[in-house]
């Protein structure tokens, strides 16, 4: 795939704001210029241009474009024209709405979007990835990293792209997979081996668990049996004729007992009251007895004193005497018999009361114990929890019994890991011609720039240790005195270029590369050498594009003149009063 042109249009005004055409092969310099010596070369849109290309290749809408009223007012629509498989296609993205991407093969920029084919973001990214990967030979897309993942390694931006050959704060396994892919080396060694190591890791965990289980297997078996007994007990409650009905019957029995006891208390109180009254009557009889005795003595008193007993007194005396005789002879006996009956009844009632109170006490005790199981759902929940415990105990007991089988399986899986690792190692050796070519390019670039070879080493991690990144393609890259004079940035440039030039040599896949802002620090003579060399190499091969953003002051006048004459400067951006020479053709 190659880039043909980039057009900035205004859908609101149906006009072209800016049009940029690229060199189909070789170096493409995007130059930030000054209108006069006091102008800034930053802020004219170099990075915005690179971000727009990224956006047209499936990236999210750049933050620098969001919420910009001038861009929204103009409804800016950027159109990237690409060529692949000997045909051209246009890709359009709106800066005020990133919900869709628009594609067209007509070669004509239409301002009415219904004339374009629209794709959702997800479908658009698949579309772009298919185009990109169509340039690779014998690629297994299913195991390849996504283009969204590798994009930041072929379009390095000045914000994060130059923290190292491996961009920081990324997943290490994914990064090494991406770099292997870009080096045309099979990139699934580590991930496939990791799957096998995870099988062994799981077996090791089981063996570790078995070791711990062995320390307490007796307790586990006892707990297992106790939990089974608990389940049987709970299930027996549920399987009882009808727990709810039983509880209801117990409740009815409780209230019936309470009612009978209350009736007994009433009867007892009535008899106790009658008993009390009879005892009071007996007391009255005793008092009357003393009075009668006084009457008896009264007749003798009258006869001795006056010689006779008056008639009026005789009548009263006789009534009292007869009453006394009745009470003593009849009423007293009656009261005594009634008291005997009352006392006998009280004894029976008190015994019945005590018996019923005993039953009530038992019924109340059962009711209190039944509070834990009164709700049938709660009983079911308890049983479910117990079964979870049983499952855990069963797992441990079964696992403990399989120790020998697991050890045997681990040995087998370790053998598979050894075979798989050796297979991938040999496959890597077969593909090592790719890495040799990359290393040769790196040495060539380093020698041209610094007259040293530098060091770029690819290696296959074959250690089978648990924590080893077995199958990873290790990459060590360094140059002499790399922390001085912008050399660190140049090291990254040379590394990326070595990978790209290797793909150019093989005419495979991604034969383009963007470096945004990485030439600001290296020495002028160094950057001019590498830019000239790469341009010549690509033109000799007649394939590949190298895009570089650079400010005018970062090149010598001789180099600028050379690159201008050689038509490497494809875009010049600067501040002007009407802003037309900024990337967007306006200030935002």
Binned, the helix content reads: 55-70%
Average pLDDT reading = 85
SS content category: alpha/beta
Which CATH C-level class of the domain at 237-386 is it? Answer: Mainly Alpha
- Low-pLDDT segments, ≥5 res: 366-373
Question: Explain this structure to me?
Answer:
The chain is α/β, with parallel strands linked by helices and 588 residues long. The chain has helices at residues 46-56, 69-74, 121-133, 147-154, 172-182, 189-214, 217-239, 243-306, 311-369, 376-401, 403-450, 487-506, 524-541, 557-565, and strands spanning 2-10, 15-21, 26-32, 76-84, 87-94, 100-104, 117-120, 155-156, 455-460, 473-478, 512-516, 545-551, 569-573. The strands form three sheets. Strands 2-1-4-5-6-7 form a six-stranded antiparallel β-sheet. A five-stranded parallel β-sheet has the order 8-11-12-3-13, with helices on both faces. The protein has a two-stranded antiparallel sheet with strand order 9-10. Strand 1 (2-10) and strand 2 form a beta hairpin. The longest helix is centred in the middle third of the chain and has 64 residues, at 243-306. Residues 366-373 have low confidence and may be disordered.
């Amino acid at each position: 795939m190659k880039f043909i042109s980039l057009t900035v249009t205004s859908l609101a005004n149906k006009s072209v704001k800016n049009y940029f055409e690229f060199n189909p092969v070789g170096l493409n310099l995007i130059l930030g210029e000054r209108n006069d010596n006091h102008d800034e070369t930053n802020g004219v849109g170099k990075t915005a241009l690179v971000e727009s290309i990224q956006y047209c290749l499936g990236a999210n809408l750049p933050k620098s474009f969001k919420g910009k009223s001038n861009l929204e007012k103009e409804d800016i629509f950027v159109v990237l024209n690409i060529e692949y498989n000997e045909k051209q296609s246009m890709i359009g993205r709106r800066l005020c709405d990133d919900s869709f991407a628009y594609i067209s093969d007509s070669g004509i920029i239409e301002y009415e979007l219904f004339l374009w084919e629209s794709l959702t973001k997800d479908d658009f990214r698949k579309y772009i990835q298919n185009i990109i990967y169509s340039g690779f030979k014998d690629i297994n897309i299913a195991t390849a990293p996504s283009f969204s993942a590798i994009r930041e390694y072929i379009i390095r931006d000045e914000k994060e792209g130059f923290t190292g050959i491996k961009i920081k704060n990324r997943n290490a396994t994914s990064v090494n997979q991406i770099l292997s892919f870009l080096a045309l080396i099979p990139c699934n060694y580590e991930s496939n081996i990791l799957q096998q190591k995870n099988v062994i890791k799981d077996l090791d965990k089981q063996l570790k668990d078995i070791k711990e289980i062995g320390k307490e297997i007796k307790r586990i078996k006892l707990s297992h049996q106790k939990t089974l007994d608990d389940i049987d007990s709970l299930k027996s409650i549920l399987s009882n004729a009808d727990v709810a009905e039983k509880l209801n019957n117990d409740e009815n029995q409780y209230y019936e007992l309470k009612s009978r006891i209350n009736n007994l208390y009433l009867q007892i109180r009535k008899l106790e009251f009658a008993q009390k009254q009879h005892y009071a009557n007996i007391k009255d009889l005793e008092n009357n007895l003393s009075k009668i005795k006084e009457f008896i003595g009264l007749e003798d008193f009258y006869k001795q004193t006056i010689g006779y007993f008056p008639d009026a007194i005789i009548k009263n005396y006789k009534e009292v005497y007869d009453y006394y005789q009745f009470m003593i002879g009849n009423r007293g006996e009656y009261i005594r018999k009634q008291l005997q009956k009352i006392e006998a009844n009280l004894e029976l009632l008190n015994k019945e009361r005590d018996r019923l109170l005993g039953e009530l006490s038992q019924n109340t005790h059962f009711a209190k114990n039944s509070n834990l199981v009164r709700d049938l759902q709660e009983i079911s929940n308890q049983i479910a929890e117990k079964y979870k415990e049983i499952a855990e105990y069963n797992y441990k007991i079964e696992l403990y019994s399989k120790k020998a089988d697991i050890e045997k399986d681990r040995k087998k899986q370790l053998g598979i890991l050894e075979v798989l690792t050796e297979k991938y190692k040999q496959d890597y050796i077969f593909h090592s011609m790719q890495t040799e070519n990359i290393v040769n390019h790196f040495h060539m670039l380093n020698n041209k720039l610094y007259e040293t070879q530098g060091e770029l080493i690819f290696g296959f991690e074959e250690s089978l240790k648990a924590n080893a990144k077995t199958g990873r393609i290790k990459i060590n890259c360094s140059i002499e005195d790399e922390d001085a004079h912008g050399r660190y940035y140049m090291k990254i440039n040379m590394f990326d270029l070595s990978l790209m030039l290797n793909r150019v040599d093989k005419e495979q896949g991604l034969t383009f590369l963007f470096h945004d802002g990485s030439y600001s620090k290296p020495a002028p003579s160094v950057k001019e050498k590498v830019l000239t060399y790469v341009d010549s190499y690509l033109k000799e091969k007649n394939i590949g594009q190298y895009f570089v953003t650079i400010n005018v002051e970062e090149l010598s006048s001789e180099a600028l003149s050379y690159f201008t004459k050689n038509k490497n400067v494809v875009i010049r951006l600067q501040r002007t009063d009407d802003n037309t020479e900024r990337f967007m053709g306006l200030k935002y």
